[in-house]
Amino acid sequence: MNPSSQANAGFQRAATKFKQSIPKTLWDQFAYDSNSLSSLNAEIKAIQKSHGEKGSLRNMARLGKFIEAMTQFGKVIEVFVNASEFVCFVWGPMKFLLGVAKTHLDTFDKLLNAYDQIGSAIPGHLLYKDMFREHQNLKVILEDYYSDVLQFHAEALKVFGRSS
């Protein structure tokens, strides 16, 4: 097995584990191409507008670190795989969770804080892109980040599934 197909297998394992932990309807929803960063940004803007009209603006900038980290992550994993196949399972659940939580401001703030903390904990992947390209055995680090983010989303989806 060549390094590229090995990396694909690692990311695929994480995606399959995520798939098995959520309802099929959500998996199908997240797998569509419409779960892109631009789609997520449109949802964030719509939430900000809605909150602004109600006089309940939140500090949505807390999403910035996570979005930047995952954007860089997508660019770096292109060394190994077709990134769009996998990052849709980052953007789609995030878009869904924000959409569900937006009407429950305390919960929404907790979700924003969680994304802020995760984004702060993930290093800037672009700084290491060449290193990952040259030392493809380091792909396991990227697989672990991806798996951890999907695990967070799976757990958050369980919580929001009970409350919605």
Summarize the structure.
The protein has 164 residues and is mainly α.
List the main descriptive attributes of the protein structure presented here.
164 residues; mainly alpha; 8 helices; globular; Zinc finger protein; DUF7708
Polypeptide structure, described:
This is Zinc finger protein. It comes from Colletotrichum tabaci. With about 160 residues, this protein is an all-alpha fold. It has one domain. Helix content is about 75%, strand content about 0%. It is built from 8 helices and no strands. Helix 4 (about 65-75) runs antiparallel to helix 5 and helix 4 crosses helix 6. It is globular and about 50 Å long. The N and C termini lie far apart (about 45 Å). The mean pLDDT is about 90.
Radius of gyration: 16 Å
- Tell me the total number of β-strands: 0
Biggest sheet record = none
Count of separate structural domains: 1
H and E order: HHHHHHHH
Structural class: mainly alpha
Tell me the fraction of residues in β-strands, as a range: under 5%
Low-confidence stretches: none
Categorize the overall geometry.
Answer: globular
Give the count of helical stretches.
8
Helix content: over 70%
Distance between the termini: 44 Å
Overall pLDDT confidence? 88
Topology (SSEs and partners):
Elements lengths: L2 H19 L2 H8 L5 H17 L10 H14 L5 H19 L3 H17 L7 H6 L4 H25 L1
